[in-house]
Design brief:
By secondary structure, the protein is an alpha/beta fold. Helices cover 41% and strands 12% of the residues. Helix 8 packs parallel to helix 9 and helix 9 runs parallel beside helix 10.
């Protein structure tokens, strides 16, 4: 086995050696919700509650200070499903374990970046990575091949092995703009990743939103999207979409329940307004448009 499973019934807080008293130091989103006047008078598209299978929001954390992360999650943790600690930042950040504990207390799943796993695999250090991940409270790993260091067969084997102990998110697509994007090959790899045991698959877009699913100008490759969604269940795909225009395109195409990834944490609330038709970009595309049309008739 590559990883060390968490003992049954053992909480993440126990793993971190965090005392029960420390719970009082980490507020929860429900505490904020209970003290706020949250309106409900508008007819808006329905949003699934966590844990949800559709409308997933996956955010990218580049190593923000713990107090900042805690403050942002206090406001919006109910809107965040996965927080990915990007690239290899978890390996060099001394506050990684503390930040993971904050996410756990807020009900947000933490995922280590795929590049860290790719480097670990290339150096034959996957068992060490898995033991460390379990020790610091991470139960979700991203398996990617953005550096093009693994064969598809090797990637499938890694997913299958890791899926015995972790939730696996598998990403398809290269980091380099020079690698050709072949729609059928992407669909084949994504399908293989799911068959190998990945819970969800991710389409590469990078933080820049200018590779993989997007051209160098950040425009969506519609033929690639079609090839993917013609073969895979939509609820199994997370589309990396760091830019607002990309998010809007995907919401317009697939609706409120599309899964979006690599979202900046400070853009989560603006994204939610786009999902709900509370932003001009999407107001005419969702069911709320009916009410708007009646009001302006």
């Amino acid at each position: 086995m590559l990883g060390a499973s968490r003992k049954k019934g053992q909480s993440i807080r126990m793993q971190h050696n965090i005392s029960d008293d420390s719970k009082d130091r980490i507020p929860r989103p429900t505490d904020l919700a209970n003290t706020c006047d949250i309106p409900d008078f508008l007819a808006l598209p329905e949003r699934a509650k966590k844990p949800r299978r559709t409308g997933v929001t996956h955010v990218l954390d580049k190593g923000m200070p713990t107090p900042v992360l805690e403050a942002l999650l206090l406001q919006r943790a109910d809107l965040v499903d996965f927080l990915k600690i990007g690239w290899g930042t978890a390996y060099v950040d001394p506050s990684t374990r503390e930040r993971i504990a904050v996410c756990a207390a807020m009900g947000v799943k933490v995922c280590l970046g795929g590049t860290l796993l790719e480097v670990s695999a290339a150096q034959q250090r996957l068992p060490e990575l898995c033991r460390w991940a379990a020790r610091i409270g991470v139960d979700t790993l991203e398996v990617s091949n953005g550096l093009q260091l693994m064969t598809r067969h090797r990637k499938a084997a890694v997913i299958s092995e890791l899926a015995q102990d972790f939730t696996v998110l598998a990403e398809t697509g290269a980091k380099s703009k020079d690698v050709p994007v072949v729609a059928a090959e992407w669909a084949d790899e994504l399908e293989s990743d799911l068959e190998s045991g990945a819970q969800l698959v991710i389409t590469e877009g990078r933080e820049s939103g200018t590779v993989g699913l997007y051209d160098s100008d950040g425009a969506v490759r519609p033929g690639l999207v079609d090839a993917i969604t013609n073969r895979l269940p939509l609820e199994k795909v997370i589309f990396e979409a760091p830019k607002r225009a990309q998010q809007v395109w995907l919401i317009e195409r697939f609706g409120t329940g599309v899964n979006l990834g690599n979202v900046a944490l400070d853009e989560v609330i603006p994204l939610e307004t786009s999902r709900l038709g509370l932003r001009a970009d999407t107001a005419g595309l969702l069911s709320v448009a009916v009410g708007l049309e009646e009001a302006t008739a």
